[in-house]
Amino acid sequence: MAASSSLSRCVVSPAGKHSASVIFLHGSGDTGPGIKSWIREILKKDLAFSHIKVIFPTAPARPYTPMMGGISNVWFDRYKISIDSPEHLDSVNSMCQVLTDLIKEETAAGIAKNRILLGGFSMGGAMAMHLAYRYHRDVAGVFALSSFLNENSVVYKELEAARQSLPELFQCHGQADELVFHQWGEKTCARLKGLGVTSSFHSFPNLFHELSLQELEQLRSWILKKLPEVTANAL
């Protein structure tokens, strides 16, 4: 098993005292620096906060079946990009362990689990949902941008037996997405809602498989709602 120390990452450090963390996972074929730069290009500034550290890890390079086995930076393998495909669980589960080490680094630095958000774009959002709803149900929340879970996802099966409060889900999806269809995101949201997840789904007309300014501004507001700045006495 690869250790998280081998998982390269770039970070946007808080301007003030670090009291919360966001782990933001890129989409397939991208990198941590790549999505950090993409966000900066759209916002005209970094996704930065006074008290929140934003971590952009890079997925290890591995053979990726939808690319005919070509090497790509992906969080897990897929048999195909489709909601009706089985999950490639071995690769999903092994990466959940690697990313758990990254979460442990934050808690070891004094950040409580309920002050950590997990999320990502496309494949990164799916990875975050597996990570949070199967292994880390005590994090502050999950965000998934242009993402979906397979119809037979193990996430749904494991949540059927859940008897605890679950992290809130913030989802965004472009209605013009031709890679990860808008209805796949809607179905994911509906299934999770039916299993007890408090969730919100935000649709963006004319948005393809991409990020947008309005979406990132809404995400930023949601992050601040879930991870408000705390006074020194409350820490």
Question: What can you see in these coordinates?
Answer:
With 235 residues, the chain is α/β, with parallel strands linked by helices. The protein has one domain (4-226): Alpha/Beta hydrolase fold, catalytic domain (Rossmann fold). The chain is built from six helices and nine strands. A seven-stranded mixed beta sheet has the order 1-3-2-6-7-8-9, with helices on both faces. It has a two-stranded antiparallel ribbon with strand order 4-5. Helix 2 (89-108) crosses helix 3 (123-135). The longest helix has 20 residues, at 89-108. The protein is globular and about 45 Å long. It starts with 8 loop residues before the first strand and ends in a 9-residue tail after the last helix. The model is unreliable at 1-5 (pLDDT under 50). Its main location: cytoplasm. It is found in: Cytoplasm, Cytosol. It catalyses: S-hexadecanoyl-L-cysteinyl-[protein] + H2O = L-cysteinyl-[protein] + hexadecanoate + H(+).
Draw up the topology in text:
Elements lengths: L8 E4 L7 E6 L6 H12 L8 E6 L3 E4 L5 E4 L15 H20 L7 E6 L1 H13 L5 E5 L8 H6 L8 E7 L7 H13 L4 E6 L8 H14 L9
Parallel strand pairs: 2-3, 2-6, 6-7, 7-8, 8-9
Antiparallel strand pairs: 1-3, 4-5
Helix pairs in contact: 2-3
Structural descriptors:
single chain, 235 residues, alpha/beta, two-stranded antiparallel ribbon, 33% helix, globular
Q: How do the helices and strands follow one another from N- to C-terminus? A: EEHEEEHEHEHEHEH
Shape: globular
What percentage of residues falls in helices of 4 or more residues? Answer: 25-40%
Strand content: 15-25%
The main sheet comes to: 7 strands, mixed
Low-confidence stretches: 1-5
How many DSSP-defined strands? 9
For the terminal residues, how far apart are their CA atoms?
Answer: 35 Å
User: What is the CATH architecture descriptor?
Assistant: 3-Layer(aba) Sandwich
Q: What is the domain tally?
A: 1
CATH homologous superfamily caption: Alpha/Beta hydrolase fold, catalytic domain
Strand order of the largest sheet: 1-3-2-6-7-8-9
Q: What structural class do the secondary elements suggest?
A: alpha/beta
Q: Report the mean per-residue pLDDT as an integer.
A: 94
